[in-house]
Automatic annotation (TrEMBL):
This is SAM-dependent methyltransferase. One of its GO terms (molecular function) is methyltransferase activity. It comes from Paenibacillus donghaensis. One of its GO terms (biological process) is methylation. Keywords: Methyltransferase, Transferase.
């Protein structure tokens, strides 16, 4: 049995320790909670979720009462404090893993089962919808265990997320870009630029903010349309991830004299991403679909495509 100091008990009772910190400090209780919540994997009725929340809430209230009445008696604390920690874990997981509870509307009760949500949240996000570079090895291992893969992208599309970037992809892009002055256009929330900056790449994220109804733009993403940004920064390299199909801005990349490298991350389908008419007319650039880089975009798909455009040498 784990033992707790009075100070630890006091801080937990006062809710002074964030759940994220508790998860790190007491991983054994997290595993117990996940096992206890396993019923949700095969039963997503809202009343089941409600019953679980009610049970944990009642358990935490009883444990809190027992501890306080005991005057933080060591034996009482050691028996009942884990019940409070586990209750906080359970409710936190249900909230964070997109499990929405509604006793009146079973159809909206659960968007991901607990197991899918737990795996995807840990693999793909730091918190909320804040993406992180994804370990390709871990992704390949866990992805096969996801029951409802088809839910992921429709869910995150609502937040302006159309792909995830593996660590291996970021490393390869960093090598390609090297010490070039780089610009990302139509950058959305700036995730790709942020990852590249962490690799010491000189990259600047810009977007015209036309998708404010979907995306929360951070201050790190400069409000500027592609043409204006290209004129302002005269970049040597340009990136664009999931450009709108038939968009009006990629053509300006090929018209910018300073650009000698353009990388488009998206799909091979003209109806889904990219201005393929502009690609065809970019006679001063070579065009290559990198199968290696395409395979590093996540989730995996035969349609994933990373196109590399290089300015042709004159001779």
């Amino acid at each position: 049995m784990r033992t707790f100091s009075n100070e630890t008990a006091r801080r937990i009772l006062a809710n002074e320790i964030k759940v994220e910190a508790l998860l790190q400090q007491y991983p054994e209780y997290q595993e117990e909670v996940l096992q206890e919540l396993g019923v949700i994997k095969n039963n997503t009725e809202s009343n089941i979720v409600h019953a679980i929340i009610d049970r944990y809430t009642a358990s935490a209230k009883l444990a809190t009462s027992k501890i306080r009445k005991s005057g933080l008696n060591e034996a009482t604390v050691n028996v009942f404090l884990p019940k409070i920690i586990k209750a906080r874990f359970a409710i936190y997981l249900l909230e964070q893993l997109n499990v929405a509870v509604s006793a009146k509307s079973p159809a909206t009760s659960v968007r991901f089962n607990l197991w899918d949500g737990t795996i995807l949240q840990k693999l793909l996000f730091r918190k909320g919808f804040d993406r992180k570079p994804v370990s390709l090895g871990l992704f390949k291992f866990w992805w096969r265990l996801i029951s409802h893969k088809e839910i992921l992208m429709p869910l995150v599309n609502k937040k302006g997320i159309y792909c995830f970037y593996s660590k291996a992809l970021i490393k390869e892009l960093s090598t390609l870009l090297g010490d070039k002055k780089c610009l990302e256009i139509a950058a959305g929330d700036g995730t790709l630029t942020r990852f590249l900056q962490q690799k010491n790449i000189d990259c600047h994220a810009t977007d015209d903010y036309s998708w404010e109804h979907y995306i929360t733009y951070p201050q790190s993403v400069e409000k500027a349309d592609a043409k204006a940004a290209l004129q302002k920064y005269s970049p040597e390299a340009v990136l664009c991830s999931w450009p709108v199909p038939g968009n009006p801005y990629e053509k300006h990349v090929f018209r910018t004299p300073s650009v000698d490298l353009y990388i488009m991350l998206g799909t091979s389908e003209a109806a889904v991403t990219g201005d393929f008419a502009a690609y065809t007319n970019a006679d001063k650039f070579s065009m290559e679909r990198s199968e290696r880089l395409s395979a590093l975009l996540l989730p995996p798909s035969d349609e994933n495509a990373v196109y590399i455009f290089r300015r042709k040498t004159q001779g």
